[in-house]
Amino acid sequence: MRLHHLELTGFGPFLERQSVDFEAFSHDGIFLIAGRTGAGKSSILDGVCFALYGSVPRYETGDKRLRSDHCAPEDPTEVRLEFTVGDRRWRVTRAPEYQRPARRGGGLTTEPTRAELEELVAGEWIGRAAKPRDVGLFLDEVLGLNAQQFQQVILLAQNRFSRFLLASGTERQTLLRALFGTRRYEEYARELGERSKAAQHELDALGERARTLLDQAERLIAAHELVPAEEAEGDRPLDLAARRAAVDLGQQRASYRLDTLTRERAAADDTRTLAEAAHAERVALAKAQAELSRARERLAALEEAGPQIADDRRRLNRARSAEVLRAPLETARRAERSAATSAELAASADAAWARAVAGTDDASADDLSAVVERLTGELAVWTAALAHEAALADGETRKTAAAADAARLEADVVALDAQRAQVPAELERIDTELEAERAAASRRDPAQVRHDELTGRLAAAVEAEGLADAQRAAEIVHRDAAAAAAAAAERVAALLQRRLDGYAGELAATLVEGEPCAVCGATAHPSPAAQADEPVTDELLTAAEAQRDAAVARERTAADVAKTARERHGAAAARAGGEGVERLREQLAAATADLAAAERAVQRRDALAARRTELAALDHEAETSRASLTERLAEARTRIAALEERVAAAREAVDAARGEHVSVADRVAHATSIRDAGRAAVDARADAHRAATLAAQARTDVDERIAASVFADVAEATAALAALPDVEALAERISAHDTQLGAARARMLELELELAGAPSERVDTDASQAALAAADAARTEALRAESDARTLVAGLRDLAMQIDHAYAGVAARAAEAAAIARLADTVAGRAPNTMKMDLETFVLAAELEEIVAAANLRLSDMSSGRYGLQHTDARAARGAASGLGLEIMDAFTGQSRPAQSLSGGETFLASLALALGLAEVVTARAGGVRLDTLFVDEGFGSLDEETLDLAMRTLDELRQGGRTVGVISHVAAMKEQLPAQLAVEATPAGPSVIRQDAAARV
C-alpha cells in the first residue's frame, strides 16, 4: 500500500485546505513531519486514518471531535486521500457530521457524515461507492486491515506505538491472521472436527445397520418356523457370535426344506405332463371328427352354386372382348364432337372479320394472311410514335416547371443583393462603437486590482481595531501574571531561608540518645538546638514550589498570548497601510463604482464584438448563397432550352403517325382490332379443316375393328362393355369358387383317411380335462412352495452376507474414525496436543518467529546488543490463546523478562524494531499486504543521542525497495539528519498550515 496525496479542509487544527504530496518524498524515502507541540503534526496521520476508516487513533468519542474549532458554521470539513493498493489507484473522500447554517430559515442543521470512493481507470476517476457504510465495506476488501491493525503495522500512532509489542496472544493472533491470511487453517480445523463427527455418526450408523440386519434375519427364521418349538420357547441369545450362528443354522434348515420341495415339484411336473398328453390326444380326435362334418357341408354348398358360376364366366368373356374396342370407340366419338365445334368457331370468326373490315378495301381481300402481315408491320411503326405522344405532355409540364424555377432564382438573387448592400454601413457603425468601449474596458484590470487591495486593507483595519482591545487585555493579564509569579518566587525564597535557619533544630529533632550524630558522630547530645516555632516542612516547601511553578507557567503563557496579540495587531495594522476604517471604506466605495463601470464596458465590448463577428459571418454566408443561386439559375436556363428542343421533335413524330385519327393511340387501337380479327379467322379455318380430317380417320378405324371382332355392329359392342370394377368382381367370384371347391374336396379326402379305423361316435373330453386340471393345481402348489423356499434361502444368504459386510465395515471404520478424531483434536489444540496450540496458531507462531528474527536484526543494533525479542510458546493461563507470546532477552542478565518491564525508551526501540520486522515479513509474502508507506509518531524524545542515531540508521535502511517512511517528532537532532521535511506551523490567528519542503519535490 502506498499513499500519494492528502488534502485536509476544516480538519483538526487546519482551517483552510492543506495538501500533502507524499510522492514528493519518494526520492528521499524518509521525511520528517516537524512542528511545535500542538501545531498538528499527528493530525496529518489522523487525517489518513479518518479517510480510510472514518475514525482516528487518538479519539474514542467518534468523528464529532474531528471538525476544526476554527471553522465558522458555514466552513466545510473534508479529508481526501489518494493511495495505491497493488496496481489499482483509489481516492477516498470523507466528511464528519457537523453543524452548519440551514439553507432555509434560520438556525443550524446537521450535515450528515459523507463518504465517497473512486478508482482511477484509464485516466478517469470512476465512482465505486457513495455511502459511508458502502465505502467502509469496499475498503475492508481493498485494504485487508481494520483500523486497529492499520495503526499497529502502517501508522504507528501516538499512544499506540507499542500495542503490538504489549498485546495479548489473542489480540496478536487477530492481527497476524489478517496480515498473513491464515484463517483457512482455522477452516481446516473446523472441517476436520466436522469430519470427525461425521465419521463417528457413520460408525454408529454401521453398527446400527448390523444389528438391524440380525433382527431382520431372526424375524425371517421365526416367521418360516425354521426353529424347533423347544428352541423357540427358550431365551434369545444376546452374544453376537451366537446370534450369527443361529442365522447360519436357520439358513441350513431352509436349504434342506428347499431340496425336499424341489423333489415334490419334479414329481408334480411328471404327473401333469402325462395328464396333459392324454387330454391332448382325445381333444385332437374330437377336433378331427368335427372338422370332417363341416367339410362335407361346405362341399355340398359349393356344388349347388355351379350353374350361376357358369353364367358369370360367359358374361366375363364378352366384357373382356368389348374392352378391346373401348378406346377406338371413344376416339371416334371425340373426333366427331371436335369437328362440329371447330366448324362453328370458323363460321363465327368469319363473321367477326366481315364486321371489322366492313367499308374498307380489305373487305374484298381473298388472302387474309397477307392482310394480317401488312397490318402487323404498320402497327410496329405506329407503336414507336405512341411513346413520343406519351412523352410530349410530360415534356411540356417539365418545361413550364423549369421556367418557374428560373424566375424564382432570379428574384432570390435580386433580394440577396439588396440585403448585402446594407452590410458595410452597419459594420462601420459597430467598429466606431467598439473602439470606444474597448478603451473603457481596458480600465477593468487596474480597477479590479485596486478594489482587491482596498478590500484586503479594509479587512485588516477592521481586524486591527478588534485586536487592539484583545492586545490591551492580554497585556493586563501578563502584568498580573508576572506580579503573581514574582510574589510566588519571593515566598519560596523566604521559605528556603527559614529552612536554612532552622536546619539545626530539625537535625536535633532527629537525634537519638546513644546513636551517633550524622554531623559530628558523637553518641552524646548534651545541648541540642531548639526547633523554630513554625518549622518549614518538605510538604510546605513542595506546595510553595508548585505554586511558584504554576505561577511561572501562567506568566509564560500570558507572555506568549500577549506577544501573539501584539504581533497579530501589528501585522493587521501593517496590512491596513496605516489608514482608518472610514477612510478605507470611502476609497473602497469609489473603487467599487469604477470596477462596476469597467465591467459594464467589458460586457458592451463583448456584445459588440460578437455582433460584428456574427454580421461578418452572415455577409460571407450571403455571398456564398448568391454564388450558389447564380450557378443554379444558369443550370435552369440550360435545362429549359433542352426541353424545348425535345418537345418539338416529339410533336413532329406524333403528327406524322396520327393520320386521320384523333391520336396515335386511337389509330393503334383500331388497326390492332382489325389485325386480331383477321388472325382469329385464319386460325379458326385451319382448326376446322384439321378436325374434319381426324373425324373421318377415326370412323374408318372403328369400322375395321368391329368387322374383325365377335360383335355384329357398334351398338352390340357398346352394350357388351362393362365397368372395370364389375369385371374384376366377376373374375374374383369365379376364381374364388374354383379354389374353394378344390380345397374342400382335398380336405374331406384327407380327414376321411385320418379317421379310418376310429369309432364313428363323438369322443368325450371332460374326464381328461378334469384329470389335467387336478394335476396342474398340484404342480402350481408345488411351484409356489418351492419358490417361497428358494426366496427364503436367498434372503437368509443375502442377510448373512450383509451382516458379515456390515460388521467388517464397523471394524474398519472404527480405526479410521479414531485416527480422524485424534487428528481433529490435535489440530484444534486438544489432547493429545500437550501445547494446547491449534493449527492456525502453530502457523502464526512460525510467522511470528520470522518477524522476531527480522526485528532482532535491528533491535540488536539499536540496543547495542543488549536486548533481543524472543518468541515463546508457553501455555497461557485460564485457557487464553497460547503459542504467540513475546519476551525480552536481556544479554546483560542472561534472563528473559516480560516486554512490560522495559523503560519508555527501550519500549520504543523494541516496538519500532518489531513493527519494522513485521512490515518486512508481510512484504516478502507473495499475495500479502505490501507496506510501501510507514509512519512513526513520536517516541524519539525518550532516546539518548547515541540510541537516537542507531534508530535513525535503522529507519534509513527502510528506504530500500521503494518504501517511504514518515517520522513525526520535534527532536532538534532529527531536523538536522532529515533534509526532506513537512512543516506544520500554527499561524498567529490560530489555525495551522502545512508547508512542504520545496527541495523534496525535486
Description:
The protein is an alpha+beta fold and 1002 residues long. 67% of the residues lie in helices and 9% in strands. Strands 2-1-4-5-8-9 form a 6-stranded antiparallel beta sheet. The chain has a 6-stranded mixed beta sheet with strand order 10-14-15-3-16-17. Strand 12 and strand 13 form a beta hairpin. Helix 10 runs antiparallel to helix 17. It starts with a strand and ends in a 6-residue tail after the last strand. 25% of the residues are buried. The C terminus is likely disordered.
Short summary of the structure?
This protein is an alpha+beta fold.
Radius of gyration, whole Å? 65 Å
Beta-strand level of the residues, as a percent range? 5-15%
State the helix count. 24
How far apart are the first and last residues' alpha carbons, in Å?
Answer: 23 Å
User: Fraction of residues in helices?
Assistant: 55-70%
Oligomer kind: single chain
Give the overall average pLDDT: 78
Report the sheet with the most strands, covering strand number, pairing sense and barrel closure.
6 strands, antiparallel
Q: What structural category characterises the helix and strand content?
A: alpha+beta
Count of extended strands: 17
Overall geometric form: flat
State the low-pLDDT regions, or none: 998-1002
Strand order of the largest sheet: 2-1-4-5-8-9
